[in-house]
Amino acid sequence: MTTSILILLGFILFSGLIAASGIVFKPGTWYQGLTKPSWTPPNRAFPIVWSVLYLLIAISGWLVWRQAGFVIIPFGIFLGQMILNFLWSMLFFGRRRPDLAFLDITLLGLAIAVNILAFWPYSRTAALLLVPYLAWVCVAAALNLKVWQLNRDRGTFA
């Protein structure tokens, strides 16, 4: 295998490890019992959408690496937004803290936007591949906020 293919597989593996937060911290019965807005996507949509997004994230990172190598600032931002991504599942589902999860996902959206700007000079394609991720995170942030608002008086949070 060429180095380029190995690096791509590394990005895919890294994205998969971040995605594993959704396996470790599952919605479960607690989430099912929460009041949700009428516009909540069906449960089956989440793994499909996130699988596509994690693949796009991996390809995006790989494209920048192919163009410029591991550039410290863009990949530092990339790593930061991936950590925030992982933390959201832990905060929302694991700790049952939609308030802290909303803060996290707000920072995540900002970090993705900065990541797009940081990737742009190296690969416009890589930057554009992150746009659907940002859009979905904005929807997820709105959903997170609404779930928090609808349920905060019920005493259902840890």
From TrEMBL:
Recorded coiled-coil stretches: none
Example GO biological process: tetrapyrrole metabolic process
Segments crossing the lipid bilayer: 6-25, 45-65, 71-93, 100-120, 126-145
UniProtKB keywords: Membrane, Transmembrane, Transmembrane helix
Family, similarity comment: Belongs to the TspO/BZRP family.
Keyword Cytoplasm: no
Record's bilayer topology term: Multi-pass membrane protein
Subcellular location(s) of the protein: Membrane
Protein name: CrtK
Main location: membrane
InterPro entries in the record: TspO/MBR-related_sf (IPR038330), TspO_MBR (IPR004307)
GO cellular component, one term: membrane
CDD domains per the UniProt record, alphabetical: TSPO_MBR (cd15904)
Signal sequence bounds: none
